[in-house]
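User:
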Amino acid sequence: MHPLRNFLSIAPQRRHRRLPTGFALLIAVIFMSVMLAFGLALGSLAYKQEVLASSALESQYAFYAADAALECALMADQQYDIFAYPSSQNAPAPAPTCEASSPISATVLSHTAKQWAVALRYDLDRSTRCADVTVYKPASASGTTYLFSQGYDVSCATVANPSGARFSSRGIFARY
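Assistant: Predicted structure:
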């Protein structure tokens, strides 16, 4: 047999046995893409959990501010009768102290023959929290008194002028 003939018959077999080039690179790129997508999904999940946890904490601060202001108003009314219905239409709004500080605003919302309504705003926790209390006091002693308290997890300055600030607000009420 001729040596050239053997070479020609072997050469085509070697060409068909070769694997395509770049196959390992393709697998590495696919693997890295999957790992990147997995990492981004975990990062997004962690971020959402952090936001959820912080908003729950802010909500608690707002609730505690509302509760503190409501308790102050309850004590002022039940212990000292500060919100007693006044006979004069021009009576000033009472301003009971809360946490050893006076309200930053006390306003008479309405004064009718049946009831009067007073709104108070308190700076709480060294001016880091805010609470609004509204008291509806009936003219007769047999009527029902309503107290509404709205707490915020930010200062009263931020509540008065939010300028795009985000904050939590929680409210509670009592009637007796």
